[in-house]
Design a protein that fits this description.
The model has no long low-confidence stretch (mean pLDDT about 90). The chain has a 5-stranded mixed beta sheet, with helices on both faces. It has a two-stranded antiparallel ribbon with strand order 2-3. Helix content is about 40%, strand content about 30%. The chain is globular, with a radius of gyration of 15 Å. The protein has a single domain, classed as Trna Endonuclease, Chain: A, domain 1, CATH 3.40.1350. The chain starts with a helix and ends with a helix. The chain is an alpha/beta fold and about 160 residues long. Helix 1 (about 5-15) crosses helix 6 and helix 2 packs across helix 3 (about 105-120). It is built from 6 helices and 7 strands, in the order H-E-E-E-E-E-H-E-H-H-E-H-H.
Length: about 160
């Protein structure tokens, strides 16, 4: 299993214990069984984020993406697709920083907010994403990746599971 998959697995374990999520509505990309349907004008896109979970009370969706080997283009696509989810609540990004040129929280936030600003110009209804703080970014490094307990503790603290 890759480091990326280890992070997704840890997120899934935390989500399954989180009381606000519907236990039967938590899906990891590894499952490949339940995409999020995003309607566009002439077609529907089937999006498989690294993890997504639906809240019990309002049936809203939290999306989790792990940026480890993603290119900037792939990261932009993640944000764009996540922002287009009709019942989106939160976008949660995990930056895996294992070297000097890896993803960092600061760099990810710059990309995220730039993409969201551009989207808001075209779709004013998306302004609530940034205004309400519905984007969370966590950063993990080599120490967390070596120890699954530390990894889960770090993710739990940063995302307030």
């Amino acid at each position: 299993m890759s480091k990326h998959d280890d992070v997704v697995k840890a997120l899934k374990e935390l989500a399954e214990k989180y009381p606000h999520y519907s236990k039967d509505r938590i899906f990891a990309y590894l499952d490949r069984r339940e995409p999020i349907r995003i309607p566009f004008h002439t077609y529907t896109h089937y999006y498989y984020p690294d993890l997504w979970a639906e809240t019990k009370r309002y049936k809203k969706v939290d999306v989790y993406e792990v940026w480890y080997t993603e290119t900037e283009g792939e990261a932009i696509a993640d944000i764009y697709l996540s922002a287009k989810i009709p019942n989106l609540l939160d976008i949660c990004i995990v930056c895996v920083k294992t070297s000097k040129d890896s993803w960092t929280k600061e760099y990810a936030e710059n990309i995220i907010y730039t993409v969201l600003e551009d989207l808001e110009a075209k779709y004013p209804s998306l302004k609530s994403l940034r205004a309400q703080g519905n984007v969370d970014v966590a950063e993990i490094g080599n120490e967390e990746l070596k120890d699954k307990v530390k990894l889960k503790e770090s993710l739990k603290k940063q995302f307030e599971f």
